[in-house]
Amino acid sequence: MKHSILTLIVLSFLFTACSEQKNPANQPAGTEAADQSDNATTGLSESEIQTLTRNLKHLDPDLPTIGVLMYEDVLMTELTAPLDVFAKHSEDGKQLFNVITIAGNYGLFTSEEGLKMFPDYTFANAPALDILIVPSAYDMSSQVKNTDLTGFIKVQNTNTEYTVSNCAGATLIGETGIADGKKIVTWVGGGIDLQKKYPNLKVQDDSKVSYMEDGKFLSSNGNLATYISSLELLEKLTSPEHRKFVESQLYLDRLQNWKK
After folding, report:
1. pTM of the model
2. pLDDT tens digits along 37-64
3. Domains held by the chain: number
């Protein structure tokens, strides 16, 4: 069966998925105000932030740009899985994508699991994206209320070739209205509530569907199923052969075949 290498991963871990769920703006780095509740607010002084943002991550103008959103209490795998997949070079060593993280402001963000992270860009200075990836948190209430975040998603969606949500990131897609009338899937157990909140979405049965695509909108249950959406999109953007190469670099076959 196609891509059977992922089957064991999904069956083994899916039920531990979420339980709740090309024009820069030219604003100087490090000057944005933290005016939303889920922005980073601790850990670095203004001078430290200025030092860290002095040189923005270089973007190759000839490569597609993939942006992964970051905010406080984000689920770590839903941010790191796309980075893990898309940052890998081709078999002959060529970079294929610009892969960046984006947050509302510069500062240290802490994932649900405790990993501290610093974004490459902010909403104010991020480039136009070819791909936007929307992860989730266990509690999405502050993200849904963050008009800067939802506004950024709306604007970037006008640029993107694909917009991807994982787990309760589907809540932000629903809140923006950008995928009304489209099929979408969320975390295992979250579909009924998502459909009630956003009746214009065509929410799929998350007990049976791990990954969904409808036009430019891709979605998954999140957690390790984020690798499914990332690898499916990778194949669309490159080739089945490159997908197999990346899977080999991830050692997915060793995880599938491992026995104690």
Report:
1. 0.83
2. 455 555 678 787 777 777 678 899 999 9
3. 1
